[in-house]
């Protein structure tokens, strides 16, 4: 009798528990289905860089012993910084002949890197010495030195106001040419995240163009955000211009592509590489 009196109450409680469990499971399922699309879409906000095609316009002679680190075209002449300890220099050359017109050799303890020409002066980075040099553009006479905060100096350019340089990572620095204090820095990024090995730089029509070390790429970077907005793949350039591939057994053989210069007056882009026998005029999106 006792068992019979409590059986209905027991059954009612059991049924109520089952309903509550089913409802909780349903709510968890609906919550999971609702939030999953939002989580997955948050990882795909960055768009891929635009593909920039290239055309070969012209070829000019280039000193095959020049280990090119910096390149800039100003007032009809090519200014170039070369690297390697004991061989580094700053030079002014004739575009059509490749002849060196003026030259300033660096002390053997310095490894020359990127350069920028601004307001009648040439600024040159060094690799690991955390020292920069200032020259008179007309004479290549050294006027002074400056220091920079990055551990290494790689590429350099100017937007007409700042000196802009890279250190081989994803970071690009903007510094005041009067005080050499950092004004800001940006991180180069694409749809996958940070883009490293940013090397020689050139400022062209409001964007930073950069060699990506050992990648045969030229990246177009937004100087405000660091976003890579365009990419040119120049993998085929060497075969098309007759420049042999790097030879690990020959230290004087042409190495990686490095060096971008812009002739603003005639809207021409020039590129070369370390120990390349040619300097090549190309058309990108200019």
Descriptors for this entry?
286 residues; alpha+beta; Neuraminidase; 2 domains; five-stranded mixed beta sheet; 23 strands; disordered N terminus
Account of the 3D structure:
This protein is an alpha+beta fold. It folds into 2 domains: 1-45; 50-283, 6 Propeller (Neuraminidase). 16% of the residues lie in helices and 43% in strands. It contains 2 helices and 23 strands. It has helices at residues 2-41, 237-241; strands at 50-51, 55-61, 68-74, 77-82, 89-93, 100-105, 112-118, 121-126, 131-136, 142-147, 156-158, 163-166, 171-175, 182-187, 189-190, 193-194, 198-204, 207-212, 217-221, 228-233, 257-263, 268-273, 278-283. A 5-stranded mixed β-sheet has the order 1-20-19-18-17, with no helix packed on it. The chain has a 4-stranded antiparallel β-sheet with strand order 2-23-22-21, with no helix packed on it. The longest helix is centred in the N-terminal third of the chain and has 40 residues, at 2-41. Residues 1-44 have low confidence and may be disordered.
């Amino acid at each position: 009798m006792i068992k019979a009196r409590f059986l209905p109450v027991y059954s009612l409680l059991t049924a109520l528990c089952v309903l509550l469990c089913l409802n909780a499971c349903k709510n968890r399922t609906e919550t999971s289905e609702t939030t999953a699309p939002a989580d997955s879409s948050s990882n795909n906000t960055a768009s891929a860089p635009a593909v920039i095609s290239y055309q070969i316009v012209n070829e000019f002679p280039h000193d095959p012993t020049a280990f090119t680190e910096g390149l800039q075209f100003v007032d009809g002449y090519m200014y170039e910084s070369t690297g390697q300890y004991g061989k580094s220099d700053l030079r002014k050359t004739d575009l059509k002949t490749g002849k060196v017109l003026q030259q300033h050799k660096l002390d053997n303890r310095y490894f020359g890197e990127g350069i920028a020409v601004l307001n009648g002066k040439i600024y040159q980075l060094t690799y690991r010495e955390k020292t920069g040099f200032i020259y008179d553009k007309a004479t290549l006479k050294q006027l002074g030195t400056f220091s920079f905060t990055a551990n290494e100096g790689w590429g350099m350019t100017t937007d007409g106001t700042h000196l802009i340089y890279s250190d081989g990572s994803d970071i690009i620095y903007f510094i005041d040419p009067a005080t050499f204090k950092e004004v800001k820095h940006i991180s180069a990024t694409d749809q996958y995240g940070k883009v490293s090995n940013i090397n020689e730089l050139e400022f062209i029509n409001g964007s930073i163009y950069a060699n990506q070390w050992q990648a045969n790429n030229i990246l177009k970077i937004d100087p405000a955000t660091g976003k890579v907005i365009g990419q040119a793949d120049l993998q085929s350039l060497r075969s098309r211009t007759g420049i042999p591939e790097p030879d690990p057994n020959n230290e004087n053989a042409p190495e990686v592509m490095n060096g971008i210069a812009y002739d603003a007056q005639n809207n021409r882009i020039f590129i070369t590489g370390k120990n390349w026998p040619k300097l090549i005029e190309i058309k990108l999106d200019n």
